[in-house]
Amino acid sequence: MKRKFILIHLLLGFLILTGCSGNLDGYAVNTMIIEKNGTISDVSVEDFSDGTYDMQELETYINTEIDEYNETHGEDKIILQQLETENSLVKLQLDYASMEDYNSFNHTDYELSSFADTVVNGEFTSTADGSSIRSSDIDAAGMMVLKVQDAMNIVCKGKVLYYNTNVKEQDGVFSATGDNTAIIVFK
């Protein structure tokens, strides 16, 4: 279901900003950005080289969906931040007031909570030295936990301290594999 909404978001962006480029140049895959205040920015990247979509209908649909959501849940819960195209790639950034808004709009069940308010089990890798640590040995003071089930890059605007085996780290970029629930612990 999330793919449907991403497709619609991206196609709308293609219609509005064909040929434009901007601040989304650094994104080549879907990326979730978690701000320290709990707001979410979601950058979706899709290839639409076949061009078989009715862009006017998509523009109307996506604007209606965002407007209806904001009318029901409160003003500015979802903000269309950026749309651009790069060759056949369409990139969209939507900002969400909270993970609840993200989940409700995208029909997902991700979690963003304090370490003390969630259940975290298993082994984790420390970003400090690559060592393994059991969840029960993590000092939970001031820690936040992100849990996602889909493949995507993740940027936490804090310091990532630990991640489970469903997260890969390469050159400071954290990627959820999409195989099982990816968990990132950050401060």
Annotate the secondary structure layout:
Blueprint: H1 2-16, E1 31-34, E2 40-47, H2 55-73, E3 78-86, E4 89-96, H3 99-106, E5 111-114, E6 123-126, E7 132-134, E8 144-148, E9 152-156, E10 160-163, E11 167-170, E12 173-176, E13 182-186
Parallel strand pairs: 1-9
Antiparallel strand pairs: 1-2, 2-4, 3-4, 5-8, 6-7, 6-10, 8-13, 9-12, 10-13, 11-12
Helix pairs in contact: 1-2
Describe the overall structure:
The chain has 187 residues and is α+β, with helices and mostly antiparallel strands. It has two domains: 2-106, Alpha-Beta Plaits; 111-186, no CATH class. It has three helices and 13 strands. It has helices spanning 2-16, 55-73, 99-106, and strands spanning 31-34, 40-47, 78-86, 89-96, 111-114, 123-126, 132-134, 144-148, 152-156, 160-163, 167-170, 173-176, 182-186. A seven-stranded mixed β-sheet has the order 3-4-2-1-9-12-11. A six-stranded antiparallel β-sheet has the order 5-8-13-10-6-7, with no helix packed on it. Helix 1 crosses helix 2 (55-73). 30% of the residues are buried. The model is unreliable at 6-22 (pLDDT under 50).
